[in-house]
Design a protein that fits this description.
GO terms for molecular function: protein serine/threonine kinase activity. InterPro entries: Kinase-like_dom_sf, Prot_kinase_dom, Protein_kinase_ATP_BS, Ser/Thr_kinase_AS. This is Serine/threonine protein kinase. About 35% of the residues lie in helices and about 15% in strands. The protein has about 350 residues and is of the alpha+beta class. The protein is globular and about 50 Å long.
Length: about 350
């Protein structure tokens, strides 16, 4: 039994919810698994909401790469508005750390390098993620993947879809310029978000102690109130500190950050990048979280219109499973009569125009 159908997808199970809508595990008519996001109905009438949702769809059409959950289909102006992206099995980075504790240095640094590579693809498409956080990273069977581009915007957009001064993002992982509501954001916001995410992955705590949102926002915008890097290994403290610089121009570029993360990962483990990739997947992917297609939604094993009884290849047909009756008067030392089989094979090959 399913929860209904949207856009031809059968909704099977809720996966979670966020500021813009609810997410369901869903299945297509051909048994493709997707994560389908439905925008909250009470937000439909809010200014710019449908346009922001449409921007998410446009963003996903432009991004690519193994670190991005690909777009499957969408209807941002439907009722309800929705989009379906590739279903990535596995726990989020937040769930993994909450359940198993902080990641060891080599794994965290390698995950950071892989995410930097994925973000590089996002930036090449002229986009920003703007909401990078542990909850938006799935630790899949092939390593980490970025999800939820609901807050991504075109870097060079001349028409902004959020109200002036509106805060877009999750406060604990927002850069100072995002908190200030600045319009001209750059790729440095994602560099900051990546560093904040890695601090959590390495330590299990955020950049600032838990507090109410307004106090947190004030602390983020105060240049002298430095983020808490206690527990971060010494090998990464200088890099993450630089990525969290209050001035976005002082942060390293994404390529530089990714290269330095990879160098720390390989040096601290003594392993190659290939070996570390396998270790990341092997130690962080939780196969028990994978959702399978329900049996009643699986594809039929045989085409119901296929009524053929003869094989369409050139293999020798298997004789009918019935006893062979041997005429005693025709039996010889050479064995039973197989004339019927020879004739059947001759008829089979006679139908082949190429032989």
């Amino acid at each position: 039994m399913t929860l209904g159908t949207i856009g031809g997808f059968e909704l099977v199970k809720p996966l979670g919810s966020g500021g813009m809508g609810e997410v369901f595990f869903a299945v297509s008519p051909t048994a493709d698994r997707v994560a389908l996001k439905v925008i909250r109905k009470h937000l439909i009438e809010e200014p710019t909401i449908r346009d922001r949702f449409a921007a998410e769809v446009d963003s996903l059409k432009l991004v690519f790469g193994s670190r991005i959950a690909r777009l499957e289909n969408a209807d941002p102006y439907g009722d309800p508005a929705w989009l379906a992206v590739e279903y990535v099995p596995g726990a989020t980075l937040r769930q993994h750390v909450d359940a198993h504790g902080p990641l060891p240095l080599p794994l965290a640094a390698m995950i950071g390098a892989m995410l930097a590579d994925g973000l590089g693809k996002v930036h090449q498409a002229g986009l920003l993620h703007r909401d990078l956080k542990p909850q938006n990273i799935i630790l899949g069977p092939d390593g980490p993947k970025l999800i939820d581009f609901g807050l991504a915007i075109l870097i060079d957009r001349s028409d902004y879809l959020t109200e002036p001064g509106a805060l877009v993002g999750t406060p604990a992982y927002m850069s100072p310029e995002q908190v200030r509501g600045e319009r001209e954001l750059t790729a440095a916001v994602d560099v900051y978000g990546l560093a904040a995410t890695l601090v959590f992955a390495l330590t299990g705590h955020g950049l600032y102690p838990p507090t109410n949102s307004w106090n947190l926002l004030l602390r983020i915008t105060e240049p002298s109130d430095l983020p808490d890097l206690s527990g971060v290994p010494a090998e990464l403290t200088p890099l993450l500190g630089a990525m969290l610089a209050h001035d976005p121009d002082a942060r390293p570029g994404l390529d530089d950050a990714g290269a330095r993360l990879l160098a720390v990962a390989t040096a601290s483990s003594g392993k190659t990048a290939s070996g570390l990739r396998q270790e990341v997947a092997g130690l962080t992917y939780d196969g028990d979280t994978e959702l399978l297609v329900p049996a009643d939604l699986q594809d039929p094993q045989r085409d119901p219109e296929d009524t053929s009884v003869e094989p369409e290849d050139d293999t020798v047909p298997v004789p009918d499973p019935k006893p062979t009756v041997v005429d005693p008067e025709r039996q010889t030392d050479s064995g039973p009569d197989v004339t019927w089989l020879v004739e059947r094979i001759r008829r089979q090959y006679a139908r082949r125009s190429t032989l």
